[in-house]
Amino acid sequence: MSPVAERTQVLVVGYGPVGQLLSVLLAQDGTEVTVLERWPRPYPRPRAVAFDGESARILASAGLGERVGAFGEPSGDYSWLDENGEELMHYEAHGPGLSGWPDSTSMYQPGLEEALAGRGAELPSLRLLRGYEAVGLAQPDGDGPVTVEAVGEDGGRIAVTADWVVGCDGANSFVRRHMDADFEDLGFRHDWLICDIVPRTPRTYRPNNLQVCDPARPRTAVSAGPGHRRWEFMKLDSETPEELDKPDTVWRLLGEVGVGPGDAELERHAVYTFEAKHARRWRSGRLLLAGDSAHLMPPFAAQGMSSGFRDAANLAWKLRLVLTGRAGEDLLDTYTEERREHVRHAIGMSVSLGRVICQTDPETAREQAELMKALRRRSPGPARQPSAVAPLLSGFLHRGGTGSGGELTPQGRVAADGRAGLFDEVSGTGFVLLTSSAPDTLLDAERSAALAALGVRTVWVRPAGSPHPSGPETGTGTVEDVEDVYLPYLAGKGAVAAVVRPDFYLYGAAADGPALAALLDGLAARLAV
Fold this sequence. Notes:
- By secondary structure, this protein is an alpha+beta fold.
- Helix 2 packs across helix 8 (304-323), helix 8 (304-323) runs antiparallel to helix 9 (333-357) and helix 12 (445-454) runs parallel beside helix 14 (513-527).
């Protein structure tokens, strides 16, 4: 029997958190999205346990801002100890970070996936096909639409033809195999036992997140979201994964850190192999990769899921522009260019941390500990954890002197028309032109019309408490800089205006009207079909 034929704009293979987020970001702007997910039901156990502030901002842009508290909580402080319990490093959370959200949020992944699934169910252009496994892929016209054949639980077959196919289907990606995209392997791997527990009695943990650099057994204890904790123990050379994963071994190790069956319910235990590698290419024709299908990294910088969320945010707006005819397909080449370099940086930082944490040679571990103690004596007191995110250095950016783009832009609270909140909540998302002067003094009518055609919103930022302007510049395009974030940001760049991309990275800045005209003309030229 021939498979049932279906048609969509974007086919997403895999409905884990990255596939969910990408599908929502596309569908909430009207893109037709079909999802193939091989498993009939969501996986009920946690895997990742944290995401960063940029990821929280991305989730909020997907409509989850008010839902984060149901499955997440600020991660709080983070300490590294040696085998004797002496503190090597200590990081403190200091409220909202650059993106307007906590720098790290600890979360319960099943709750996150439930919230993303709920958001997806609200969008009429998103169709989820659970229990369908992709088994075949063909691109009859060479560079035209792609057809993916899938088999359902009942043996029924469907053939979904899509303009674009995105593999969000994990480390053993079906889509990546059809792209013939191999991994670049950094050669770092270790086995760790993961133990997820639910404390029977609520308690406060100090520090909330802990790394013990003990050469006899490196171990970790972290928040895994409200009401959940995780312990991790590295496998020693004398052990096998099977021995380590036995319930008796699990409870013995938990008992050594003060956790027994009377203290907590053991929700899950498993041995994972942490690896460090990424795909050499993320696009082949109409096929694309995102999330674990494109990269794997150790958890020590907590960037695995966050990197996948950046993939989704970067890819979604580019696909929308291509699908709506406002950009050529070559825009999608910048997806690989930008994200691969970002991921290389995150993986490199994760590996660097892992080489310290996973050290089992006592003498080397002692030398590392002494160095960290010496550094702490030189800079006493809590520090802010360094970011694993680097600026974009190439891709869809304006390059040229002080107006060059590539950095992640800040988010602060603003007010407009009697409403106050984070900038994205008040002004919306998408391409934004920020100005510190009245836009009509910087833009002529032709360029204003061109911006509107490209979907760029102009937002005039004024000092908090300043008189509301009258005339054509009033309305939702004018906000007050309540927390004094945006005007100092522009001034620090010597700019009167800046173009911010939909994924919150700076496209470019301009020092005056003529420089802004050149910046916008360049933007329009790069998006020309």
